[in-house]
UniProtKB/TrEMBL annotation:
<feature type="domain" description="Methyltransferase type 11">
    <location>
        <begin position="69"/>
        <end position="172"/>
    </location>
</feature>
<keyword id="KW-0808">Transferase</keyword>
<dbReference type="InterPro" id="IPR029063">
    <property type="entry name" value="SAM-dependent_MTases_sf"/>
</dbReference>
<keyword id="KW-0489">Methyltransferase</keyword>
<dbReference type="Pfam" id="PF08241">
    <property type="entry name" value="Methyltransf_11"/>
</dbReference>
<comment type="similarity">
    <text>Belongs to the methyltransferase superfamily.</text>
</comment>
<dbReference type="InterPro" id="IPR051419">
    <property type="entry name" value="Lys/N-term_MeTrsfase_sf"/>
</dbReference>
<dbReference type="GO" id="GO:0032259">
    <property type="term" value="P:methylation"/>
</dbReference>
<dbReference type="GO" id="GO:0008168">
    <property type="term" value="F:methyltransferase activity"/>
</dbReference>
<dbReference type="InterPro" id="IPR013216">
    <property type="entry name" value="Methyltransf_11"/>
</dbReference>
<protein>
    <recommendedName>
        <fullName>Methyltransferase type 11 domain-containing protein</fullName>
    </recommendedName>
</protein>
<feature type="region of interest" description="Disordered">
    <location>
        <begin position="1"/>
        <end position="23"/>
    </location>
</feature>
Length: 264
């Protein structure tokens, strides 16, 4: 899912935008996105942040040898930029068959990129623990604006947890602050070690006191500290979630990469 940003709706309502034949469509429905991509003609657009802004997080936590799942890829350039930066296997998924076909044609000659029409709430086509990393910027937010938002969010997070290998990471870029995102990440059945970063929106000109790679401490309840207010009120929250389960042997390249980072 990619285009102009969805509303930063932290509720669990039934937000929608657009219609087809007089029927209101929500952000969680394929019909909405199919119609939108037809209208936009496949013009590239990255939600929230481009790769150059997210690169410090990706390079720190995701080694280039990783098998990576790009959730809600839309027409974004991020996967192309990551291939240029040395990443070797990115499986891009989106609910819209229209944009998937557009991207397949656009990148047919780049073997590192694969495009599949998949609903993130049901990724049963992939076996358990088949990815080292998953990245989402905006898809969970879109589901939170759609019908059956709590159920959709739970289905997505549980599926991502199922697909990530132990020691792998889920990088979530969202408008949602910890009070409305950590409960979804920490639902029963998931066991994430969550580290939060805050990234100003592109074009923000105010002064930022902390470096973007400085983690923001969370309380025991998974909330921002009392009195903590981001300098940019429209900041994006970057949750780096490491899957904490029993590790066996050398594990994934992600595990080895993080261990090397700690030794340097």
């Amino acid at each position: 899912m990619s285009s102009s940003s969805p509303p930063p709706d932290d509720g669990e309502g039934e937000g929608s935008d657009g219609n087809a034949g007089g029927k209101s469509l929500s952000y969680g429905e394929a019909e909405y996105w199919d119609a939108r991509y037809v209208e936009e003609g496949g013009a590239p657009y990255d939600w929230y942040q481009r790769y150059d802004a997210l690169r410090p997080f990706v390079r720190r936590f995701v080694p280039p040898a990783s098998r990576l799942l790009m959730i809600g890829c839309g027409s974004a350039l991020m996967s192309e930029d990551m291939v240029s930066d040395g990443y070797v296997e990115i499986v891009n998924i989106d609910i819209s068959s229209v944009v998937i076909e557009m991207m397949r044609k656009k990148y047919f000659d780049i073997p590192q990129l694969q495009y599949l029409r998949v609903d993130v709430r049901d990724m049963s086509m992939f076996p358990d623990e088949s990815f080292d990393c998953a990245i989402d910027k905006g898809t969970l937010d879109s589901l939170m604006c759609g019908v059956d938002a709590p159920l959709s969010a739970a289905q997505m997070v549980l599926e991502v947890d199922r697909l990530i290998r132990p020691g792998g990471v889920f990088i979530l870029i969202t408008y949602g602050d910890p009070s409305v995102r950590v409960p979804h990440l920490n639902q029963p059945g998931c066991n994430w070690k969550i580290v939060l970063y805050i990234l100003p929106r592109p074009g923000f000109t105010g002064k930022i006191r902390r470096h973007v790679l400085d983690p923001v401490p969370l309380t025991e309840r998974g909330r921002l500290p009392d009195g903590f207010v981001p300098e940019d009120p429209d900041s994006h929250y970057v949750y780096v979630c490491e899957k904490m389960q029993v590790l066996t042997g050398a594990g994934s390249p992600t595990i080895n990469h993080i261990e090397r980072e700690g030794e340097e």
